[in-house]
UniProtKB/TrEMBL annotation:
Protein's UniProt name: 3-hydroxy-3-methylglutaryl coenzyme A reductase
Keywords: Endoplasmic reticulum, Glycoprotein, Isoprene biosynthesis, Membrane, NADP, Oxidoreductase, Transmembrane, Transmembrane helix
Protein's organism: Gossypium aridum
Catalytic activity: (R)-mevalonate + 2 NADP(+) + CoA = (3S)-3-hydroxy-3-methylglutaryl-CoA + 2 NADPH + 2 H(+)
Cellular component aspect of the GO annotation: endoplasmic reticulum membrane; peroxisomal membrane
């Protein structure tokens, strides 16, 4: 596209009538070349290197003969001009992305010169050249200027990912990207909301190339009586019965005097993998890391990149010539993946000086283990390791849950323990911990993918007080949560954290808010386990889901 300043209206040529022949969707770099592309490339390659070699020989002779370099002959001047011309061609041809960024910026200047009348004419020309799309799929953009930008995005002249940076208006960039996407795919995004969201809050932080946002309803359950404090728990889910069932569990726990919780461990992990020429060299580094006298040196290197990251331990595992090092550290109120990764990079840089034959393969060697079910997380823990328990009274079981102690104990043994063992479960000795974890994670801005290990849970039930009451507990070794960073800073998620009283970083005790959030997650899972197991024991599960998780409404009409 020509991005030079356009002539005044009086000098502009009359617009051409649209041709019936299909027009190309984008310009190629070779379109402006008078010769075949391969011939032109060969010509400029040869010209560039030949004149460069010629000039080097001439300057060498001048230096030997003490002739000033600035004194040039006609042939040398022609060679210099040829060198510059060939360099510009090669830069333009092989640096398309670089050149296009300047084209796009120049286009922005040109757009400012388009008056309203010409912009409307150009819009009609664009529509004539665009694919045939039903009218209801193409909502009008705000101006003729935006129409031209949409066309440039469709043609690929402006990269879609660069709109925010080039326009300086995040919402306008989303609207243009959205319109371009509809024209390219010929699919409507009418049901995907655009307005009502602060797109600037996610720029370079939460999501790239946004075209809207998905609405997930947030319900509340509670109060949860946990450690003598009451909490109203927000849960974002599209599955009926989840909030209602958890709320019933809260009711039973409250009526029985509440639940108690304990944080067993608090440490985020990252495990790089390095390789040595031999297994003996890998073992040498393992012995170095295992030596307690070297820990403080490692901690000093690890801790220097953060005010909150404090190295706790390093656990090593050998696989042939490869060494896996699992670093664990506190991360304050952040979930801490970036924090621990920076600390690991510091230690690796230090170790490389001590072990020059060490080859760093990856900052993460899956010994961490992040977003994957792994025995290391189930056994050693990751993030917050929590246990939560409650004693449910016999009369509460009968009145609220319509079941008995003996029935629940037997069901838990056969379903959650024996049944999960038969299935070969890893960390899945529970009824539906992931339902509650996912709902709270989405509502509070946690990483939903970390539900994989955060839902590791074993639910235990046994009769107490001469068999009259039920002791129920959930042990969750790897709850990965934070109250600062990532999605927690978004307005909706921040409001849910504020509802729980854990918004932001704790000023009194670093890490206190994230540990409390982990306790609330464990307490909510306890309630969810109690209620679902009771529903299964009393035969209410299917009936409840038919009532609250089946819709007779035609949602396709609602969405339109």
């Amino acid at each position: 596209m020509d991005v030079r300043r356009r002539p005044s209206k009086a000098l502009r040529p009359a617009p051409k009538e649209p041709s019936s022949a299909p027009e190309p969707t984008g310009a190629k770099a070779s379109d402006a070349l008078p010769l075949p592309l391969y011939f032109t490339n060969a010509l400029f390659f040869t010209l560039f290197f030949s004149v460069a070699y010629y000039l080097l020989l001439r300057w060498r002779d001048k230096i030997r003969n003490s002739v000033p370099l600035h004194v040039v002959t006609f042939s040398e001047l022609a060679a210099i001009l040829s060198l510059i011309a060939s360099f510009i061609y090669l830069l333009g041809f092989f640096g398309i992305d670089f050149v296009q960024s300047f084209i796009a910026r120049a286009s922005n200047e040109a757009w400012d010169l388009v008056d309203e009348e010409e912009g409307e004419d150009h819009r009609h020309r664009l529509m004539a050249c665009s694919p045939s799309i039903p009218d209801h799929i193409i909502p009008a953009v705000s101006s003729a200027e935006d129409e031209e930008i949409v066309d440039l995005v469709v043609k690929g002249t402006i990269p879609s990912y660069a709109l925010e940076e080039q326009l300086g208006d995040c919402k306008r960039a989303v609207r243009i990207r959205r319109e371009a996407l509809q024209r390219i795919t010929r699919r409507s995004l009418q049901g995907l909301p655009l307005d009502g969201f602060d797109y600037g809050s996610i720029l370079k932080q939460c999501c790239e190339m946004p075209v809207g946002y998905v609405q997930i309803p947030v319900g509340i359950a509670g109060p949860l009586l946990l450690d003598s404090f009451e909490y109203i728990v927000p849960m974002a889910t599209t599955e009926g019965c989840i909030v209602a069932s958890t709320n019933r569990g809260f009711k039973g726990i409250y009526a029985s005097g509440g639940a108690t919780s304990t944080i067993l461990r608090d440490g985020m992990t990252r495990a790089p993998v390095v390789r040595f020429p031999s297994a003996s060299r890998a073992c040498h580094l393992k012995f170095f890391l295992d030596n307690p006298s070297n820990f403080q040196t490692l901690a000093d290197e690890f801790n220097k990149s953060s005010n909150f990251a404090r190295l706790q331990s390093v656990q090593c595992s050998i696989a042939g010539k490869n060494l896996y090092m699992r670093f664990s550290c506190t991360t304050g109120d952040a979930m801490g993946m970036n924090m621990v990764s920076k600390g690991v990079e510091n230690v690796l840089a230090y170790l490389r000086n001590e072990y020059p034959d060490m080859d760093i393969i990856s900052i993460s060697g899956n010994f961490c283990s992040d977003k994957k079910p792994a025995a290391i997380n189930w056994i050693e823990g990751r993030g917050k390791s929590a246990v939560c328990e409650a004693v449910i009274k016999e009369e509460v079981l009968k009145k609220v849950f319509r079941t008995s102690v003996a029935t629940l104990v037997e069901l838990n043994m056969l379903k959650n323990l024996a049944g999960s063992a038969v299935a070969g479960a890893l960390g899945g000795f529970n009824a539906h911990a992931s339902n509650i974890v996912s709902a709270i994670f989405i509502a509070t801005g946690q990483d939903p993918a970390q539900n994989v290990e955060s839902s590791h849970c074993i639910t235990m039930m046994e009769a107490v007080n001469d068999g009259k009451d039920l002791h129920i507990s959930v042990t969750m070794p790897s709850i990965e949560v934070g109250t600062i960073g990532g999605g927690t800073q978004l307005a909706s998620q921040s409001a849910c954290l504020d509802l729980l009283g854990v918004k932001g970083a704790s000023k009194e005790l670093p890490g206190a808010n994230s540990r409390l959030l982990a306790k609330i997650v464990a307490g909510s899972v306890l309630a969810g386990e109690l209620s679902l197991m009771a529903a299964i024991a009393s035969g209410q599960l299917v009936q409840s889901h038919m009532k609250y998780n089946r819709s007779t409404k035609d949602v396709s009409k609602v969405g339109s």
